[in-house]
Amino acid sequence: xxxxxxxxxxxxxxxxxxxxxxxxxxxxxxxxxxxxxxxxxxxxxxxxxxxxxxxxxxxxxxxxxxxxxxxxxxxxxxxxxxxxxxxxxxxxxxxxxxxxxxxxxxxxxxxxxxxxxxxxxxxxxxxxxxxxxxxxxxxxxxxxxxxxxxxxxxxxxxxxxxxxxxxxxxxxxxxxxxxxxxxxxxxxxxxxxxxxxxxxxxxxxxxxxxxxxxxxxxxxxxxxxxxxxxxxxxxxxxxxxxxxxxxxxxxxxxxxx
Amino acid sequence: xxxxxxxxxxxxxxxxxxxxxxxxxxxxxxxxxxxxxxxxxxxxxxxxxxxxxxxxxxxxxxxxxxxxxxxxxxxxxxxxxxxxxxxxxxxxxxxxxxxxxxxxxxxxxxxxxxxxxxxxxxxxxxxxxxxxxxxxxxxxxxxxxxxxxxxxxxxxxxxxxxxxxxxxxxxxxxxxxxxxxxxxxxxxxxxxxxxxxxxxxxxxxxxxxx
Lengths: 257, 210
What we know:
The complex is a heterodimer of chains A (257) and B (210). Chain A has 257 residues and is α/β, with parallel strands linked by helices.
C-alpha cells in the first residue's frame, strides 16, 4: 500500500503553552485507510490534522502528502485537494445547498454539467433528494442534514484525502449513529483516505480501520481497533479503553485546547 | 409660510440641491475610502482598533472647530466641507465595516479557508455578503449624520440648507429657518427609509440562519 500521509518528526508549539502540542510525531497513514485519532482535549489530535492542510504550520519536521512535502505546495492549492469537515459544519448561510456543494468545483472551474451531475450524485449518496434540497438554504435544514451537506461539500471535488475534525460531535445520538453508518458507506465506496478526529471511543472503534491514540502531543498507540483493545500498549491506553474516558470539558471551537 | 415658499421656492430648491450634492459627494468618497482602509486593516485587530480610535478622536472634534482648523490649509468652500464630512464618516463607517467582518461566524470563515479559498475569495464571497447588514447600517448612520452636519458647512461658504438656517437666524426670518429644517428632515427621513429597506432586504437574504 502506498503512503498517503507521512509525518516525520513533527513538532508543533503554540505560543504560551508550556508543552508541545505535537511532540516529535512520526506517522505513516496508508492510502484508503479510515484513521480515527482518539484522545482527550489538548492531546494534539486536532492540531495534527490542521497541520496536514496547513491551517497550522509545523515548527519542526516534515509532512508528506503522497510523497510531496506539503511545504512545496501553495496552501490554497493544497487545500483544494483535501476535503475538510469541522464540527461546527461551517456551511455558508447565504448560499443554497447547491452553491455550498459546488464551491470547490467552481473554484476549480469545472463545467456546469459536470457540477450539476456531481451535486445530484452526492445528494443522492446521503439520501437527500436533490430536487427537494438543492435550492434550500442551510438554515432550513436540521443539524444532521447540515452535516451531511458538510460532508458531501468536502467530497465534491474528489479530494484524495478527507480530514474530519469531530464532525459528529454536536449531533444527537440517533442521527450520529446514522451519520457514522453513512460515513462508513462513503469510505467503502470511495476508498479515499480519511483522517477522523474524535474523543468518543465507541466512534473511534466503530469507524477506524486504524486507530491512533494520542496524549500530550505524543502517539500512545497506533493499530487496528482489535489490536488496541486486545493489547493496549501502555497504562494510558488501557485506562482510556477500560474507563471509557471521554473528555467532558471539551469546548472551544473543536480546537480541543 | 406657504407664501414664502411660493415666492422663494427657487432659492429653497437651489439650497436643497447644493445640500444633496455635498452629501452625495461626501458619501461616495467616504465609502470608497472607508472600504479601502477596512480592507487594509481588517486582518490585524490591533491596527484596526488603533485606526478606529484615531478616527473616534477626530469624530469628537466639534465640526465648527474642525472647519476652522482646515480653512488655513484648504480654504473656504465646498472642498473643505466635504473633507471634514469625509473625516467624520470614517469613524462611523470603518467601525461598522470592521464589526461586520468580525461578526461573521469564525467557523464559516475557517471552512472557507479550509476549502482552499484565497483571502480575496473569502472576503468577497463569504465575509462581505455576511457582513452586509452591518455594512449598510454603517452607511445609513453616516448618511444621516452627513445630512445633519452638512448644514454647518454653510459657515464656510459651502452652501446648502445650512445657508437657509444661518441666514434665517441672522435676519430673524422664521420661515426661512423652518423651510431649511423641514427640507433637511425630509431628505434625512427619505434617505434613512431607503437605506432601511435595503438593510432589511439584505438581512432577509443573508440572515436565513447560520
